[in-house]
Amino acid sequence: MASEPSHPIIVAGDHRGYMEYALERARLSPPAPTKFCVGAVLVDAEKNDILSTGYSMELPGNTHAEQCCFTKVAQKHNLPEERIGEVLPKNTVLYTTMEPCNKRLSGNRTCVERILTLNGAIKVVYVGIKEPETFVGGNVGRKRLEDAGVVVTVVEGMQDRILEVSTAGHGGQNE
Question: Rounded to two decimals, what is the model's pTM?
Answer without folding.
Answer: 0.91
